[in-house]
Amino acid sequence: MAKVLVFVEDPGAANYALPLLAPLGATLWTAPALRPYLDARGVQPAQVINGPTADLPDDTEVLLIGTSENLQTAAHDLVRQAKVRDIPSVGMIDFPANAAARFRGETRDPLAHAPDWLLVTDDGTARHYEELGFPPERIGRVGHPHFDTVLALRATLEQEGVAAVRRRLLPDVPKGQKLLVFLSEISGGLDPDQYRWSPDYSLDGRGGRDDRTGIVIEAFLDASATLNPRPYRLLRLHPKNTRAEFGPLLDEFDGISQAGTPLEMVFACDLVCGMTTMLLYEAALLGRPTLAILPRAAEGAWLPTIASGVTPAAITRPALSRMLPTLLTAGQGNDLRPEPSLPRALAFLQTIAS
Predict the structure, then answer these.
(1) Which of 16, 41, 90, 260 has the greatest CB tally within 10 Å of its CB?
(2) 161 and 211, same structural domain?
(3) What is the pLDDT of residues 75-122, one digit of tens each?
(4) E strand or H helix that includes residue 233
(5) What is the secondary structure of 293-310 as a DSSP string?
(6) DSSP 3-state assignment of 276?
(7) How many other C-beta atoms can be found within 10 angstroms of the C-beta atom of residue 3?
């Protein structure tokens, strides 16, 4: 295989890229903000880039980049250098949302910093880029390599059992009490206006916040507080969350989860709630019951398991109050098992490098 350089600086892109490193014999570069995330997974990058520019190594034969919420990411500069030197560049798209913003940078052109090729998870994601003008023949519909890892973990955890995993990871949860987790997100990103209150919101908070995450968490806390018997309510923070941004809302949860990798934790839960985080998709892959709580219906297109109906969505408070107890007591997940992705991704990259 050709000499491959991989650059990622956001957790989602890192999840997509990490299974590719060993089979490709690739070198990993990252940015400072991702170091804690990689450290928790025992991954040591070869170089940490602190700034919007970096020198592409002379021996690079293929460049793989992840997208980022950083408009001045060094990935843009690396792609520019690769194009000048006629080195194939490949973008890894782990998520269908924000297609028009991922390669825009600080311009208005959605493909201003686009690489030569794309790896995408599915046909729907591919269509977003085709509609923007990206050549269809340069898009590889290869799935998500990380999902292979999630499904392998599911097989291991199912042998141990949900109750045993819960006792091992969350011993503070009283025996016999239902465990309900909410997966947080940051209220920002490539298109920050999408993550603030707007008139098309069908879900309301308590009136004091305008951030998407805060509004949804308030609705979740109010609805779950009425459940009888009362479940143990756990908040899983996003890697980019800070506790300060939640203020007194943290005190309403029975527990806060932040350290380490979250997959075993969500497997231990009776119901996994969130908005459109990829971790909600991963929870469905682990066979757990999932519920999306969305402030507006249009966001259902942001996560494939919501769009496909695998993860039901509540977009109003009455719907949330009705769906929470039903899903929590049913305890029935799904058998979502996509075909292996890693072989398809490696085969596609091989054609690019040859």
Answers:
(1) 16
(2) yes
(3) 999 999 999 999 999 999 998 888 999 999 999 999 999 999 999 999
(4) strand 232-236
(5) E-SSGGGGGGSHHHHTTS
(6) coil
(7) 16
The reply to whether 132 falls in a domain is yes
Order across the sheet with 89-92: list the strands.
47-48, 27-30, 4-7, 62-66, 89-92, 117-120, 139-141
Strands laid side by side in the 313-314 sheet: 255-257, 232-236, 179-183, 271-274, 290-293, 313-314
Residue 174 carries which side chain, given as an amino acid letter? P
Supply the CATH number for residue 289's domain: 3.40.50.2000
Residue type at position 125: T
Residue 61 domain-assigned (yes or no): yes
Residues 6+ apart with CB under 8 A from 6: 17, 20, 21, 24, 26, 27, 28, 29, 64, 65, 66
Q: Are residues 253 and 293 in the same domain?
A: yes
- Least reliable range by pLDDT among 188-197, 237-246, 290-299, 339-348: 188-197
| Pairwise CA distance, residues 290 & 283, whole Å | 7
- What letter represents residue 4's amino acid? V
Quote the mean pLDDT of the chain: 93
Say yes or no: 244 and 121 in one domain: no
On whether both 113 and 205 belong to a single domain, the answer is: no
Helix (H, G, I), strand (E, B) or coil at 232: strand
Residue 89 in any domain: the answer is yes
Q: Specify if 335 maps to a domain.
A: no
Q: Are 238 and 277 in contact (CB under 8 A)?
A: yes
Distance CA 260, CA 50 (A): 24
Count: domains in the chain: 2
Which residues, in sequence order, are bridge partners of residue 29? 7, 47
Q: Which contiguous run of DSSP H or E holds residue 123?
A: helix 123-132
Average pLDDT (287-298) is 96
Return d(Cα 57, Cα 59) in angstroms, integer. 6
Look up the domain containing 171 and give its range: 146-330
Identify whether residues 133 and 161 lie together within a single domain: no
My answer on whether 182 and 58 are in the same domain is: no
How far apart are alpha carbons 41 and 28 in whole angstroms? 14
- Parallel, antiparallel, or unpaired for β 4-7 and 62-66? parallel
